[in-house]
Design a protein that fits this description.
Elements: E1 13-14, H1 15-20, E2 30-34, H2 38-53, H3 58-61, E3 62-66, H4 72-80, E4 89-94, H5 102-113, E5 119-125, H6 133-141, E6 143-146, H7 155-167, E7 170-171, H8 173-183, H9 187-201, E8 206-207, H10 209-215, H11 218-232, H12 236-248, H13 253-273, H14 279-285, H15 293-302, H16 305-324, H17 328-340
Helix pairs in contact: 5-6, 7-8, 7-9, 8-10, 9-13, 11-12, 11-13, 11-15, 12-17, 13-14, 13-16, 16-17
């Protein structure tokens, strides 16, 4: 039975070590990536893909499915079916927590007694309990990778290196700390903020706390939440007025999106985490600063997960449009109409 045993299994491998490790031998039958950070999950996903299918065409050698839509019989059939024009098949189940019910764990335990040589399974989950019988078996025959920040204190120094590599900028340690204080350990948002700061700094070689304050943190923090509230309330005139205030200060489209995108991404992340834990714990895991938690609670009372996903996609689309159209103000006004319109809330 897939029940808890008397002791826990082997500890998960850290994502940094997993990505740096040079694999030897045949790919393993099963990999588990657990965590909530999209950037770190993507690093793990790419590392698994390199190990399993190498340079093969993913369209020929990879099957990807959401856990809510996955059927265990189809997953096992895919693992047992030899891939076309590739040495091995990779079956990836994203958001697999719902997929891994007791029945599925039982079937996968039986499968792992004699796993197919033609395929590897990769499961992405938000949480992982190493005390389950199934978890222990995975640790024996496969690999469990923790896609989360194991040493948060090292993130500012890592950001300094990323600022130099991505934008050729010197990011002061104090500025890096401020970024972490505001955005937490959401690596995708941190990297996006670095890109926006490089644009904001222009020809200046150094990014300091003043730039972070002006673009990302305290300088616009209150009005960013005012805008979120206006969107949640479908108050289009208020939202357009706030856009005008940002615009009057000289903010251009990439900077405006750089202010909004991390906020909506964090709301989306908290909403997803709160499906499996308490809201307070979800906000802590998502790195929401204490002063912002009441605002997050208010926003989540109004926004559904689908609303937030639509809003975040609108920001992604606007980012692309702003980079390809000469009239970025029109792009931003279109964004506000889309955010505050009835299709979002």
């Amino acid at each position: 039975m897939a029940r808890k045993g008397p002791s826990e299994g082997k500890p998960a491998q850290r994502i940094g070590d997993f990505c740096k490790e040079k694999p030897t031998g045949e790919p393993l039958p099963l990999y588990v990536l657990h965590g909530a950070d999209p950037y770190l999950l993507d690093l793990g996903r790419q590392a698994v893909r390199r190990r399993v299918i190498g340079d093969a065409d993913p369209g020929m050698a990879m099957m990807e499915v959401l856990g809510s839509e996955a059927v265990v019989a189809d997953v096992l059939d895919a693992l047992r079916t030899p891939p076309f024009l590739a040495p091995r098949r990779l079956v990836l189940v994203r958001e697999a927590d719902e997929f891994l019910d007791e029945h599925t764990r039982e079937l996968l335990l039986k499968y792992l007694e004699d796993p197919a040589k033609s395929g590897s399974l990769c499961l992405e989950v938000a949480s992982w309990n190493p005390a389950y019988t199934f978890s222990k078996r995975v640790a024996e025959v496969g690999r469990v990778v923790a896609c989360e920040a194991s040493e948060p204190g090292r993130i500012p120094a890592w950001l300094q290196g990323q600022a130099k590599d991505r934008g050729g900028k010197k990011l002061t340690y104090a500025a890096a700390q401020m970024l972490v204080e505001y955005l937490g350990t959401d690596f995708a948002s941190l990297l996006h903020a670095l890109d926006q700061l490089a644009l904001y700094a222009g020809a200046e070689p150094t990014i300091d706390t003043a730039e972070v304050d002006a673009l990302i943190a305290r300088g616009h923090h209150e009005r960013v939440w005012d805008l979120c509230n206006a969107v949640a309330d479908r108050n289009l005139s208020r939202a357009l007025g706030l856009l005008e205030a940002f615009w009057t200060e000289g903010m251009v489209a990439p900077q405006f999106i750089g202010v909004l995108r991390p906020t909506f991404r964090q709301l989306l992340r908290v909403r997803a985490l709160a499906r499996r834990t308490s809201l307070d714990d979800a906000m802590a895991r998502a790195g929401v600063p204490y002063p912002a938690r009441d605002r997050v609670r208010r926003a989540l009372r109004t926004f559904t997960e689908e609303n937030l996903a639509d809003a975040y996609q609108a920001l992604v689309d606007a980012d692309l449009e702003a980079k390809t159209t000469p009239n970025d103000r029109l792009a931003m006004e279109t964004l506000i109409h889309r955010l505050a319109g009835p299709c979002i809330v």
